[in-house]
Amino acid sequence: MRRLESPKPDINVTPLVDVVLVLLIIFMVVIPQMEAGATVNVPGAAHPDAKNDVQHPPITLSVTAAGNLYLEKRAVSRDELTALLRQGHAASPRSKLVLKGDRAVTYGLMRALFRECQSLGFPGVSLQVGDKSEGES
Q1: What Cα–Cα distance (Å) separates residue 91 from each residue in 87, 96, 125, 129?
Q2: Strand, coil or helix: what is 17?
Q3: Which residues contact 129 (CB under 8 A, 6 or more apart)?
Q4: Which residues contact 102 (CB under 8 A, 6 or more apart)?
Q5: CA separation, residue 119 to residues 70, 89, 114 (Å)
Q6: What's the predicted TM-score (pTM) here?
Q7: What's the CA gap between 70 and 77, in Å, rounded?
Q8: For residue range 85-101, what is the model confidence (pLDDT) as tens digits?
Q9: Strand, helix or coil for residue 16
Q10: Which residue has the higher pLDDT, 126 or 64?
Q11: Which tens digit of pLDDT belongs to each residue from 24-67?
């Protein structure tokens, strides 16, 4: 009697590679969209603070180069800004506020917004900056 040979297992990794590449592309597209606030070109600092409070995420107020205001990702007018900030502070009183202003925004506008946010009672108001690059003064 003749013995039948059993088929040898062969692993095909092509579908796995396809799935991994698709996931990589999805993450490359989605991750930049998850950043809070509007996209602005923030000024650099030599030693930015990297502390994050996971339980009380900060509220982000962005100011674009044109002077447009965005609370998180929502465009707001200067008139409705105070009411929305009060609501955000009431909903999460331990959350800090991060001002994210484009480097082209005037100092006067950023200072006025900073003063207004401090008067609302946030436990901390900070300016978001990026890493200072070599050629930047």
Answers
A1: 6, 12, 17, 26
A2: helix
A3: 42, 43, 44, 45, 48
A4: 40, 41, 42, 63, 64, 65
A5: 19, 12, 9
A6: 0.58
A7: 8
A8: 888 888 888 888 888 88
A9: helix
A10: 64
A11: 999 888 887 776 666 666 666 555 555 666 667 888 888 888 88
Amino acid in the structure at residue 29 = V
Q: Please name the amino acid found at residue 100.
A: K
Q: Which domains does the chain have, with CATH numbers?
A: 55-131 (3.30.420.270)
Q: What is the pLDDT of residues 98-111, one digit of tens each?
A: 888 888 888 888 88
Q: What is the pLDDT of residue 135?
A: 42
Distances from the Cα of 4 to the Cα of 1, 7, 9, 11, angstroms: 10, 9, 16, 22
Computed over its alpha carbons, how large is the radius of gyration of the chain? 24
Q: Are 67 and 109 in contact (CB under 8 A)?
A: yes
CB burial readout 3-21, b (16+ within 10 A) else e: eeeeeeeeeeeeeeeeeee
> Closest by alpha carbon to 36, among 20, 17, 58?
58
- What does the alpha-carbon distance between residue 27 and residue 125 come to, in Å, rounded to a whole number? 31
